[in-house]
Amino acid sequence: NTSVLxxxxxxxxxxxxxxxSGPPIQQRALDTIRRTRALVPDDMVIIGMGGFTKAEEAPxxxxxxxxxxxxxxxxxxHDPLLAIHTNRxxxxxxxxxxxxxxxxxxxxxx
Length: 110
Description:
Shape: flat
Low-confidence stretches: none
Strand order of the largest sheet: 1-2
Order of helices and strands: HEHEHH
Radius of gyration: 15 Å
Structural class: mainly alpha
Oligomer: single chain
Distance between the termini: 27 Å
Largest sheet: 2 strands, parallel
């Protein structure tokens, strides 16, 4: 979930070299999941990660092709209880949208 493709554009107060992670790479992660989903069989599991830091963002990953979610920066830097908050949010989200299970979120299956 770390990208070093644009590290030279970053200004750092130290001489340390690192990659991008968290919200700055979310759109790239979603685009990559979408493109990957188009290339692999429907039964291949894709774990969506990269830029996922808030429970409210979870549906985005399922909609573009993820079967599961993972987060490192989201848990470490934003919300240590992200998994719990995401599960609760998804249950409420699915109920309010008339969905019965997580596969209903996977609109790429249509």
